[in-house]
Specification:
Layout (H helix, E strand, L loop, with lengths): L2 E3 L6 E3 L1 E4 L9 H13 L4 E3 L15 H13 L6 E6 L16 H15 L4 E6 L26 H13 L3 E7 L3 H14 L4 E7 L10 H9 L2 E5 L10 H4 L7 H4 L9 H16 L4 H10 L4 E6 L4 H9 L7 H13 L6
Parallel strand pairs: 3-4, 3-10, 4-5, 5-6, 6-7, 7-8, 8-9, 9-10
Antiparallel strand pairs: 1-2
Helix pairs in contact: 1-2, 1-11, 2-3, 3-4, 5-6, 9-10, 9-12
Length: about 350
């Protein structure tokens, strides 16, 4: 395993992070336990979860993933071996069963306290805001269009003051963002800088061969402001394994169970995936290995959040840390990207 530190801290994390959003839906508690055991054995010390998980989010399965991790901590006593990240759910149609009060002071305190109980721990290493409260372009929307009816009011400073209070209580150590844009990221950083408030140290956004918008403004923000990317969906919901193109996807594969998650399956995304598959096979790799190795090698990456529904997938994904892509392969990848840029934003 390779390690880095969370930006502006001395917290050492593996460059592969264990994603958990299938546990409690596609995976049982027993399977989640086995994945955590294997990850620890492979040197992974960084786990990411959210109160929203498992996904798809429903009232019936709400926060089940956190409960599974908490039960594993109690069973194994391995809390001290894990850098643990979780998130408060932002407002939205599919989070209304959780709360509708966004990142208010009461919401933050409630969410942190409830996550601590479910996770059976007394502290969270990295606490993340799952997406912006304001209306902006996320999940398949390429460009920002301003909505003059957006009722959101600027509350960056207030949120950071409330997070500061929770940090000082000892319940969380560091804070980060998720699904945020360049403007929002810079606003948080500027508020921290000018008002001596907690600093956002990471941003968890989608990033893969099919989804590279992070390389725009946010890549510059990451470099100049030292805020690290935690890349999620590096396998594009399994599309970048090649199994859907080859027709080898199991009946319990994510896009067979939940076809509404189709943003990685459009015509252009499928064509790009076919080209990436050929590059991988021509160079003696699986598409999964190449896809993950590409993300692992990005200079703005802090950790690559991988997920799997079985141990064979998980082992292959973790082992991608040992692969380095040649300049020739990277050039071939970028040629495809130049011809079919960001087919699944």
């Amino acid at each position: 395993m390779k390690y880095t530190t969370l930006p502006n801290t001395d917290i050492k994390v593996s460059k592969i992070c264990l994603g958990t959003m299938t546990w409690g839906n596609q995976n049982t508690q027993e399977e989640g336990f086995a994945q955590m055991d294997l990850a620890i054995d492979k040197g992974v010390n960084f786990f990411d979860v959210a109160e929203l998980y498992p996904v798809p989010a429903t009232a019936e399965t709400y926060a089940e993933t956190e409960r599974i991790i908490g039960n594993w901590f109690t069973k194994t006593g391995n809390r001290d071996k894990v850098i643990l990240a979780t998130k408060i759910a932002g407002p939205g149609d599919y989070t209304a069963h959780i709360r509708t009060t966004g990142f208010s002071k009461a919401s933050l305190h409630e969410a942190v306290d409830n996550s601590l109980k479910r996770l059976q721990t007394d502290y969270i290493d990295l606490y993340q805001l799952h997406w912006p409260e304001r209306q902006t372009n996320t999940f398949g929307v390429r460009d920002y269009t301003h909505n003059p009816n957006d009722g959101w009011e600027d509350n960056f400073n207030e949120i950071l003051h409330n997070l500061d209070e929770i940090i000082k209580s000892g319940k969380i150590r560091q804070v980060g963002l998720s699904n945020e844009k360049a403007w929002g990221t810079m606003r948080y950083l500027e508020e921290s800088k000018h008002h001596n408030l907690p600093r956002m140290i990471t941003i968890q956004n989608a990033y893969s061969l099919l989804c590279r918008p992070f390389e725009g403004d946010l890549a510059e923000v990451a470099h100049r402001e030292n805020i690290g990317l935690l890349a999620y969906s590096p396998m594009a919901f399994g599309v970048l394994s090649g199994k859907y193109i080859k027709g080898t996807a199991a009946d319990n594969a994510r896009l067979k169970l939940f076809p509404r998650f189709a943003r990685y399956s459009g015509k252009q995304a499928t064509e790009a995936t076919k080209r990436y598959l050929k590059i991988a096979e021509d160079n003696g790799m699986t598409l999964a290995q190449m896809s993950l190795a590409f993300v692992n090698g990005r200079p703005f990456l802090t950790s690559n959040i991988i997920g799997a529904t079985n141990l064979e997938q998980l082992e292959e994904n973790i082992d991608s840390i040992n692969i380095s892509l040649s300049k020739e392969v990277l050039n071939e990848i970028n040629k495809v990207h130049s011809e079919i840029p960001n087919p699944a934003p």
